[in-house]
Amino acid sequence: MIVGGEPELALLLHIFPEGVEELDGAYAVYADEPPLGFDVVEVEGVEEGWEDAWRPFHHGVRIGRLWVGPPWEEPPAGALAVVIDPGRAFGTGAHATTRLCLELLQEAEPTSVLDVGCGSGVLSVAAAKLGFSPVAAFDIDEVALETTAANASANGATVDVVTELRPAELAVMNIALDVVESMLPRLPVERAITSGYLDRDRPRVDGWRPVGRGERDGWAADVLERH
C-alpha cells in the first residue's frame, strides 16, 4: 500500500490500470502481473469484484473548456463534456500528461489531427469536441481501438479508428519519450503535441523544433513543428 493524494492516485492509475483502491488513507494496487521495474512484495486474497472497486475514487476533472470524467458522474454546466469509461485497461483524464495535452490542444487552431497511441480515446474525443476535423485515432492494440471507438460513439464524436498512420496537420502523442522520439520521423504531420515524460526530459529529433511547452506536477508536454 502507498500513502498519497490525488496526484499519486492519478499516477497509480496510469501505472496500474487494472485497478487502484483507496484503503484507510493509502492505496492498494491490483495487477495480474507487476509492471516492468516493480516487484511483488505482498500478495493478498481479494474479494470478488475488485476490478471495479476503484471506480468510486475516479472523479472528473475540469481542464479549460473541457470536463473529462466517467459516465457515473454528472459534468458541470457549460463544460464540453468528454465522458470516458476507462474500463480496466486504460488511463483517465486525471493524469498530468493528459491534462497538459488537453491544455495545449485547446491553444491550437482546430484542424485535422492524428491521435497516436489513442488508448481510451480521451484525446481523440476531446479533439472532436473542440472542433478538430477529421480526427483519426491510431493504436497497435486492438482493444484500445475498440475502446476508443466505443467512447467516441458514447460521446457522439466523429473519430476514425485506424490501423495505419494517416496524414494530418497535427499529431497528439501521450506516450513514453523513447516512443515519441522514434515515432516523430514517421508521422505524416507538420506539428505535434507530445507528452508522457518528466519535465526534465525533452524530445530531441532531427527535423523537429520545440515551439511551446507546458509543465505540471513534474511532468511535461511539448509543441513541436517540422523545420
Give the key terms.
Rossmann fold; 3-stranded antiparallel beta sheet; 27% strand; 2 domains; alpha/beta; 227 residues
Task: Summarize the entry for a quick read.
This protein has about 230 residues and is an alpha/beta fold.
Beta-strand content bin: 25-35%
What structural class do helix, strand and pairing data support?
alpha/beta
Overall pLDDT score: 84
Task: Compute the number of helices.
Answer: 5
Order of helix and strand elements from N to C terminus: EHEEEEEHEHEHEEHEEE
Quaternary state of this entry equals single chain
Biggest pleated sheet: 7 strands, mixed
Total strands: the figure is 13
Helix content: 10-25%
CATH level 1 class label of the largest domain: Alpha Beta
Which strand order do you get reading across the main beta sheet? 9-8-7-10-11-13-12
Radius of gyration: 17 Å
CATH homologous superfamily grouping of the largest domain: Vaccinia Virus protein VP39
Number of discrete domains = 2
Q: Characterize the overall form.
A: globular
CATH topology of the largest domain: Rossmann fold
Straight-line distance between termini: 47 Å
CATH architecture descriptor of the largest domain? 3-Layer(aba) Sandwich
- Residue stretches low in confidence (pLDDT < 50, at least 5 long) are 1-6
How are the SSEs placed, and which strands pair?
Layout: E1 2-3, H1 6-15, E2 20-23, E3 26-29, E4 61-63, E5 66-69, E6 80-83, H2 96-107, E7 113-116, H3 122-129, E8 135-138, H4 142-155, E9 160-162, E10 170-174, H5 177-183, E11 191-198, E12 208-216, E13 219-226
Helix pairs in contact: 2-3
